[in-house]
Amino acid sequence: MQFKSYFFISLVFCFIFILSCSETMPLKEYKDASVLRDKTIRYDLQNYSKEEFDIAEVNYSEAIILIDENKDPAKVKELLTSASNSYQLILSNALPQYAQTLKEEISMERVYSKEIKAYRVDKDNYEFAELNYINALSALSTNNYEEAVNCFINSKKYHHKAYFTTKIRYDESSRGIKEAEEKIKQVDELEKSQSAK
User: In which region does residue 44 sit, left (phi positive, over 0), alpha (psi from -120 to 50) or beta (all else)?
Assistant: First the structure.
C-alpha cells in the first residue's frame, strides 16, 4: 500500500514536471518556423538565397537541439524567431522570382501540349492544366506569389500528363498503322508471287 502511494506521488511529480517543461517551451514559435521552413524546402528556394537559408538552418537546428535537451526556452524562442525571419525573407524575395521562372517553363509545356493536340486526346488533364494556368496568372497579378507558384506547379504537372498521355496514344497509333502497312505490303507481295505462278 505504501509503495502504491509513493509510486502515485512520483507519477504526479513527473506529470507536473513534464507539463511545466512543455509550457515553457515556445511551441508557437516552433510551429511558425517549421511551417516557413517546410515551404522554403517544398518550393526548393534554398538556392535563391543560400546564405540566408544557411543562417535560418543553423538557428533552427540549434533550437531543435535545445528543445530535445529541454533547455533554455528563452534562447529557443530567440533562435526560432530568427530562423522564421530568415525563412520569411527567403520566401518574400524568392517566390516572385520563382513564380516568373515557372511561368516561363509552363509556357513551353503549353506549346508542346497544343502542338501534339492534347486538348483533343486528354481533354480533362489539358483543361485542368489551363484552369490552373489562368488561376496562376490571376494570383500573380495580385502579387499572391505563393498561390501563383502552386497553380503554376499544378498547371505544369497536368500539361505534362496531357502531353505524355497523348504522345503514348499517338505512338501506339503510329505503330499500329506501320504494322498494318507492313501486313498489307506482305499480302500484296504474296498476291504478286501467286499471280506470277
Answer: left
